[in-house]
Design goal:
The protein is built from nine helices and twelve strands. By secondary structure, the chain is of the alpha/beta class. The protein binds zinc ion (ZN). The site of zinc ion has 5 residues, from strand 1.
């Protein structure tokens, strides 16, 4: 049986149950929510090379446990909303007109502190210890990977797919390529086989296929390749993108195609963390 998972990032103190219902009321299967334990506020700031202009740049932190309606909603529907951790605060640092993501840091003490307190907040709030970590902005340093792995997470997902399929691939994934060598060295040195880093060509190592509808033909080519190669598939989106009805229709058509090919929706923990997968 082949599976695929749906991943939705950025659920936080600022997310309402109505936001999630608008995005996912139509989807009768499980999806994995990347929850930010202590989100900072977003600020509007258009920057070159970014596809949206709202970034987590605030100072004050807001604990997800402070949003009772959201926490209750998620606790009530564990079969629909599987939980992953999406950073701790998701806070970006601004360097000129470039953003540095939270886990794109080499400060082990900072990373360790943030990872532990984020995990504790999710445990406190949901009574569950997630095994999947989704780095904010899909960016994580070698040190970040070591820390997250050492804290007990078994799977970190990055957007780095398995094989180049076009020249465009190198342009799309230049940022991910930059730290891939370091991550691979870490994985080999620590025999961290349970920590599945996208980008390995080894069988059984997870692949992430991100949903970007700006080039739907290329997206569908990649999905077809992944299905043919039996690579694990993640369709990644955000609930605020899914608020758009035309986006939901495209997403639904994609998931219909996958299910038509015999793939079944599963949580990221089921797909990426099962010992025998
Ligand atoms: Zn995010």
């Amino acid at each position: 049986m082949s599976f695929f998972c749906v991943r939705d990032d950025d659920a936080s103190y600022f997310t309402s149950p109505a936001d999630l219902e608008l995005a996912w009321g139509w989807w009768p299967h499980v999806l994995t929510l990347g929850v930010i334990p202590f989100s900072v506020e977003t600020r509007y700031l258009p920057l070159p090379g970014r596809d949206h202009a709202l970034h987590q740049l605030g100072e004050a932190e807001f604990a997800v446990s402070g949003n009772d309606p959201l926490c209750e909603h998620l606790r009530k529907h564990p079969d629909k909303y599987a939980l992953a951790m999406h950073g701790c605060t998701h806070r970006y640092k601004l360097h000129g007109d470039r953003l540095k993501a939270e886990y794109d840091s080499s400060d082990a003490a900072f990373l360790g502190r943030e990872t532990r307190r984020g995990l504790e907040e999710l445990q406190r709030c949901f009574g569950h210890t997630p095994k999947v970590f989704i780095p904010p902005d899909n960016a994580i340093s070698r040190k970040g990977l070591e820390v997250v792995h050492g804290t007990g997470f078994s799977y970190v997902q990055t957007p780095f797919p398995l094989k180049p399929d076009s020249v465009r691939w190198f342009l799309d994934y230049a940022g991910a390529l930059h730290s891939w060598g370091g991550r691979l060295r870490h994985r080999l040195r620590h025999k961290a086989v349970d920590l599945r880093v996208c980008g390995s060509i080894s069988k059984g190592i997870g692949a992430a296929i991100l949903v970007k509808f700006d080039d739907e033909t290329l997206l569908r080519e990649r999905l077809d390749l992944a299905v043919a190669q039996r690579w694990p598939i993640t369709l990644a989106t955000h609930y605020w993108e899914m608020a758009d009805a035309s986006y939901r229709r495209k997403f639904a058509s994609l998931t219909d195609d996958l299910m038509g090919k015999g793939l079944k929706p599963a949580s990221m923990e089921t797909l990426y963390c099962a010992k025998d997968s």
